[in-house]
Amino acid sequence: MRLRNKPWAEDFIKTHSTIALPDPESYKGNWKSVFNNDNPLHIEVGTGKGQFITGMAMANPHINYIGIELYGSVLVSAIENVLEAGTPANLKLLNVDGSKLKEFFEKGDVDRVYLNFSDPWPKTRHAKRRLTHANFLRLYEDVLVDQGEIHFKTDNRGLFEFSLVSMSQYGMMLKDVSLDLHAEMPEDNIMTEYEEKFSAKGQPIYRLEAQYKAK
Ligand SMILES: C[S@@+](CC[C@H](N)C(=O)[O-])C[C@H]1O[C@@H](n2cnc3c(N)ncnc32)[C@H](O)[C@@H]1O
């Protein structure tokens, strides 16, 4: 993602603290108090400008969503998306690093993790930075319910192949693997910004669901 520095981002995020929550550590183990209900919680790590998570929240009011984005300058666009959508009550954003999930969630807080068009980190020496590396799979498992799921979409064949291997070797069960999602185009598919961009260029979109085995 090309980053345009927005010096005002921090203030903008602070003034929208009911959408982009400050101090997410304080909700660890108690996210139900944020949403005032017992509904399942789905998170997206690397939410970008938030088109996917906002669309999901509007389409599924009985699921709670949290979009996690590292860069404030990008999160600003996600906040704008949420405002445009009328600020759905089942959607919150966090301006935090996805590699620190355990600071904000405890085991069982999260019912599903979405990863969409994660940075591919193509160099072998950067493999550990890929969000589907075993270290990240362990991290997600540590906050997910037993037999929780990851749903992953990407345009990047190398990252997709790496993820298939990484998840299989981790012992996860792969389901609904697609090498051309848009050829099938499930009715409930909500496109991300990157998905729109790459599919408009005719590139195939890869998708999989992976489930952790029971402990
Ligand atoms: C290539 S963009 C994809 C954005 C969006 N998911 C989409 O599909 O259009 C990847 C996003 O992940 C964010 N990201 C990368 N590493 C992250 C991390 N460790 N924690 C949170 N966000 C991260 C980046 O800042 C960027 O906005």
UniProtKB/TrEMBL annotation:
Enzyme class: transferase
Highest taxon listed in the record's lineage: Bacteria
Keyword Methyltransferase among record annotations: yes
GO molecular-function term, one example from the UniProt record: tRNA (guanine(46)-N7)-methyltransferase activity
Transmembrane segments annotated in the record for this chain: none
A Pfam short name: Methyltransf_4
EC numbers, comma separated: 2.1.1.33
Record keywords: Methyltransferase, S-adenosyl-L-methionine, Transferase, tRNA processing
Pathway: tRNA modification; N(7)-methylguanine-tRNA biosynthesis
Family matches, as SUPFAM superfamilies: S-adenosyl-L-methionine-dependent methyltransferases
Annotated binding of S-adenosyl-L-methionine, by residue: E44, E69, D97, D119
Catalytic activity line of the entry: guanosine(46) in tRNA + S-adenosyl-L-methionine = N(7)-methylguanosine(46) in tRNA + S-adenosyl-L-homocysteine
Binding of substrate, residues: K123, D155, T192, E193, Y194, E195
Biological role stated in the UniProt entry: Catalyzes the formation of N(7)-methylguanine at position 46 (m7G46) in tRNA.
Annotated family: Belongs to the class I-like SAM-binding methyltransferase superfamily. TrmB family.
Entry protein name: tRNA (guanine-N(7)-)-methyltransferase
Record gene name: trmB
